[in-house]
Amino acid sequence: MQSIDMANVLRPTAQAYTLPPACYADPAILAHEQAQLFVGGWVSAGRGDSLDKVGDYLAFSVSDTPLIAVRGDDSQLRVFANTCRHRGMRLIEPGRGSCRHLVCPFHGWRYTLEGVLAAAPRMQGAENFDPADFGLVQVPCAQRSGFLFVNVDGNAGPIDDWLGDFDALHQPWGLESLVTASTREFSVACNWKSFLEVFNEYYHLRKVHPGTFSALYDEPDVPEDARGAFVSQFGVHRHVGSVGVLEQSSSPLPVLPGLSGRLANGTRYTWVYPGLAFAASRDAVWIFEVTPHAVAETGVRLTLLFDPHSVASGDFEAILGRYEHRMAVGMDEDIAILEAQQLGLTSALARPGRFCPELEPSIHAFHRWYAGRLVGAGLAHG
Ligand code: FES
Ligand SMILES: [Fe+2]
Questions:
Q1: CATH number of the domain at 46-150, out of 3.40.1000.10, 3.40.50.1950, 2.102.10.10, 2.40.50.140?
Q2: For a pocket test of ligand 1, which of 83, 85, 86 has the largest count of ligand atoms closer than 8 A to its C-beta?
């Protein structure tokens, strides 16, 4: 692969060009993204709110690396390679659950919740075999604002350097105390970056969501000048009310308890690089976590968070249905565009474009970070 020229991407937003189209279409570039950004970065594995008790686990993947997060007998949460140390079997199927040990379904090697090999049947004849040498491979992890972050290759540096001002900036929404009310997984025939880009720009609202969301949002603020591998942009709503449901006149849930002033009637759109984006709104938070499967195939997990008091209320199921409906309607409108955009981007005749400085600054912020990571890895030049 030739070094990518990022000089035009690294200019100020009003002068910059978008990423070269090959970044959305070339499998060689995707392989580098997987290694440099996903395996080499701090990636959100999902919410940690069902991992509170000893034995609670979450089996998931980052790139093609199967992992398991599990709460140990000492109450510590650890993340291990979900790969048996005998002959490499994946230990646990993807998903959440609870267990007492991790037992390999192939030949029965058994690991403690701390990843120590506790039993290996019929291995007495193996010479110089010390079970202490065959514990599960551990991966750095950290919980911040209720998200579980992992760094597969262990080289991303401290999580607090990666996230910078993230925790402080999102403090008013109380992300840590919000609970997961709904999750949905699906796949979209577009590049992973396109999926997150459309979620982080206001430019498309008028054309793509004319009858649904376009009228709900006022002009956004400029993105925060914050430290960390993320971009975040707050905007007030045009009218007092929720943007999490389609019937804007009524707000089915109260404002989150930590919000006041402008924050009590607006939404903060945040993209934590590479694969986590969410909208922290006045009454709910909706989260997208993406996994690239191919240049034009992106796995998406959508999670809805609410205040625990709202979730406990008697009519919450019906209210939740209204939020889920709004997400589905918006998603369908975006997916139709994203899949057609992918066809255009995959053309040999596609060329870098330009940004709308007022309505697409968050995309450019991501492109600058992306370009910087690839330049740093020697894959691109500025
Ligand atoms: S591969 Fe796990 S016990 Fe054999
Ligand atoms: Fe959209």
A1: 2.102.10.10
A2: 86
- The reported pTM is 0.96
pLDDT tens sequence across 267-312: 999 999 999 999 999 999 999 999 999 999 999 999 999 999 999 9
Is residue 84 within 6 Å of ligand 1 at its C-beta? yes
> Which homologous superfamily is 4-41+164-381 in?
Naphthalene 1,2-dioxygenase Alpha Subunit; Chain A, domain 1 (3.90.380.10)
Ligand 1 neighbourhood includes 109 CB (under 6 angstroms): yes
Ligand 1: residue of 107, 111, 117, 129 to mutate (most ligand atoms within 8 A of CB) is 107
Long-range contacts of 110-114, Cβ-Cβ distance < 8 Å, separation of 24 or more: 111/135, 111/136, 112/72, 112/73, 113/54, 113/55, 113/70, 113/71, 113/72, 113/73, 114/72, 114/73, 114/74, 114/76, 114/78
pLDDT digits (tens, 9 = 90+) for 27-56: 999 999 999 999 999 999 999 988 999 999
60-74, 188-202, 204-218, 241-255: least confident range: 241-255
Dist CA 8 CA 249 (whole Å): 44
